[in-house]
Write a structure and sequence with these properties.
This protein is α+β, with helices and mostly antiparallel strands. 25% of the residues lie in helices and 34% in strands. Strands 1, 2, 3, 4, 5, 6, 7 and 8 form an 8-stranded antiparallel β-sheet that branches. The longest helix has 28 residues. The protein is globular.
Length: 161
């Protein structure tokens, strides 16, 4: 019998504080992903490794774990950073989505995803190291492509009504 996992896990204050404290202490979080918003790179069932990363070093193309406006955990790609009224925000989006997420304040970012473990029943374990130069360049290119796709798709949607 296969266990079903919830599509969204909500970050209660205690959970968010625990994750934040663990990451701040230097611990690495390994989190099983649910949902399809980061496909095909990260799929439901994959395990991502997250560590605290100084905000100043985060940039376009990095995938971060953050607390969304509804209190759920999200793992999406950074498309841009912006300072508004003295506060720093990032704009994120799932690779498989057209629409951007709401702006995410820097203090809601728990950490950066640096490794993906892909487990498939009929294949050996595959580990992606997102900190290699190839994945870093690839992440930036994916972010630029995602921005272009969203602009075209949202403009087409607006024209069609």
């Amino acid at each position: 019998m296969r266990k079903t996992m919830p599509e969204t896990i909500y970050a209660g204050n205690e959970t968010a504080e625990l994750f934040s404290e663990l990451l701040h202490s230097g611990a690495v979080l390994r989190v099983r992903v649910t949902g399809t918003s980061m496909g095909p790179l990260i799929r439901s069932g994959d395990i991502v490794s997250v560590r605290k990363t100084p905000f100043a070093t985060l940039g376009r193309g990095d995938i971060v774990l953050f607390i969304n406006t509804d209190g759920s955990y999200m793992a999406h790609r950074i498309l841009r950073k912006q300072t508004k009224a003295g506060r720093v925000f990032v704009h994120t989006k799932g690779d498989a989505q057209v629409e951007y997420d709401p702006w995410v304040p820097a203090d809601k970012i728990l950490g950066k995803i640096y490794k993906v473990e892909k487990r498939r029943s009929n294949r050996p374990l595959k580990i992606l190291d997102l900190e290699t130069i190839g994945w870093q360049i690839g992440g930036r290119l994916i972010a630029l492509i995602q921005i272009a796709i969203s602009k075209v798709a949202l403009a087409a949607r607006a024209r069609l009504g």
